[in-house]
Amino acid sequence: QVQLVESGGGLVQPGGSLRLSCAASGSIFSIYAMGWYRQALGKQRELVARITSGGTTNYADSVKGRFTISRDNAKNTVYLLMNSLKPEDTAVYYCNVRPSVAYEYRYWGQGTQVTVSS
């Protein structure tokens, strides 16, 4: 009964900003890492950013310097602030959670659409 609920997607002009959020709930008792993936039409799903329980972050080269990932451990929530958005950022963005460092098992959200267009 673990659920990941994303919000914050939408339509934005190039150069604009959006803030995505993802809240984890249900029978989850620990979270080692949370992150965001995205998948554009006709392309493979790719890692955008991730953050561990210790605060270590990692970003795709294509978004580094423009996107910022953060988390609120008390609320089991992860955020993705996206600045200077480009049309190439258009994709469905998926929240992901890894409960344990010892296992690769992950949970996925349903996705939220981000469209960058003038």
Q: Overview of this structure, please?
A:
With 118 residues, the chain is mainly beta. The chain is 0% helix and 51% strand. It contains no helices and 11 strands. Strands 2, 4, 5, 6, 9, 10 and 11 form a 7-stranded mixed beta sheet that branches. The radius of gyration is 14 Å and the shape is globular. The relative contact order is 0.32. The model has no long low-confidence stretch (mean pLDDT 95).
Provide a compact summary of the structure:
The chain is mostly beta strands. Helix content is 0%, strand content 51%.
Described by strand count, sense and barrel closure, the largest sheet is:
7 strands, mixed
The strand count comes to: 11
Shape: globular
Structural class: mainly beta
Low-confidence stretches: none
Q: What do the pLDDT scores average to?
A: 95
Give, in order, the helices and strands.
EEEEEEEEEEE
How would you describe the oligomerization state of the chains in this entry? Answer: single chain
Q: Helix content range of the residues, please?
A: under 10%
Rg, please? 14 Å
Give the CA-CA distance, first to last residue. 40 Å
Quickly count the helices. Answer: 0
Strand content: over 45%
Name its key features:
7-stranded mixed sheet, 11 strands, 118 residues, 4-stranded antiparallel sheet, mainly beta, single chain
Helices and strands in order:
Layout: E1 3-7, E2 10-12, E3 18-25, E4 33-39, E5 46-52, E6 57-59, E7 67-72, E8 77-82, E9 91-98, E10 107-108, E11 112-116
Parallel strand pairs: 2-11
Antiparallel strand pairs: 1-3, 3-8, 4-5, 4-9, 5-6, 7-8, 9-10, 9-11
